[in-house]
Amino acid sequence: MIDLHLHTSASDGRYPAAEVVLRAHAAGITTLSVTDHDTTAGLDETARAAAPLGIEYVPGIEITAVWRRKDLHVLGYFFDPRSPGLQAFLVTQRQDRIRRFRAMVVKVAELGLPVDVDALVERAERHSHHSLGRPLLADALVSAGYVADRREAFDRYLGDDCAAFVPRAGASPEEVVGIIAGAGGIASLAHPGLLGHDEVIPSMVASGLQAIEAYHSKHAPATVLRYVRLAEHYGLAVSGGSDFHGDGGPSGSARGGNDSAALGCVALPRDAFDRLRELAVSGARARSS
Ligand code: AMP
Ligand code: ZN
Ligand code: FE
Ligand code: FE
């Protein structure tokens, strides 16, 4: 089974990379990619944990771009994690995450929901490879007893256009595609069914987008089919994965992470994976000739 979309505690996932790999192995996953938000901090640990289990490991990342003041996620695969251009870009992304997190903490306090997240912010500042995000603020709202779970925190306060929402400052989708390509990687538009703005795709394709994430835990079967067809229309490959953040407990529960995506709930077909890898290999060949 192939899963190319997993989160660890290097960003907003519940478990450290080594534990995600062990759990993935137990769920029958044989090829995986850890795709943390705006950080590659979990990748070495992922590779080290995957090797003795015979798991095939692909370097991955999920980068947040800004499109019409909204977040748009771009996945990157098969890139060189040591690329200086990529890492410099990610540093600015994580700095903006801290700024935004702080601004949202002020906003929730103004709404009468004070939370103490100094330790989290300090950790992100000290371990600058760690990526802060709204789910961690959601957890603080849950711990303080203001909301029942991450989902309620997003629905009432943190989601796009909600009262405590603060827009991100950052790169456009086209720029992010260029940054992934510049590090030797393949860019894939993450969960387009959740984004709901297919009109962004043509300009991303013109900037070098090579895939779209047709297979995703929140895509209904008809949505998967629709994006497989759209990929064919644009001559793109498809990627896919669970978007696992926690242990896949009851939908939206604090224990279950962001959502109900369990390991093994989504599998990318082998032929789709082979196509992605072929694109990465031929890209590398073209660059070296
Ligand atoms: P951020 O990186 O700070 O923009 O936060 C984005 C993260 O929040 C993503 O990983 C999503 O999985 C999570 N998220 C977005 N919307 C929701 C929601 N309605 N309920 C729970 N988690 C969400
Ligand atoms: Zn996340
Ligand atoms: Fe995402
Ligand atoms: Fe994700």
Number of helices: 11
Q: In sequence order, what are the helices and strands, one letter per element?
A: EHEHEEEHHHHHEHHEHEH
Helices and strands: which structural class?
A: alpha/beta
Q: What fraction strand?
A: 5-15%
Indicate how many domains the architecture comprises: 2
Question: What is the CATH superfamily of the largest domain?
Answer: Metal-dependent hydrolases
The low-confidence runs, each spanning 5 or more residues with pLDDT under 50, are: 249-258
Query: How many beta-strand segments?
Result: 8
The set of bound ligands, ions and cofactors reads: adenosine monophosphate, zinc ion, fe (iii) ion
Q: Can you tell me the CATH topology of the largest domain?
A: TIM Barrel
The percent of residues in helical segments reads 40-55%
What about the largest sheet? Answer: 5 strands, mixed
Shape: globular
Span between N and C termini?
34 Å
Tell me the strand order in the biggest sheet: 4-5-6-7-8
Q: Give the averaged pLDDT, no decimals.
A: 93
The CATH architecture of the largest domain is Alpha-Beta Barrel
Radius of gyration based on Cα positions: 18 Å
Q: In CATH's first tier, which class of the largest domain applies?
A: Alpha Beta
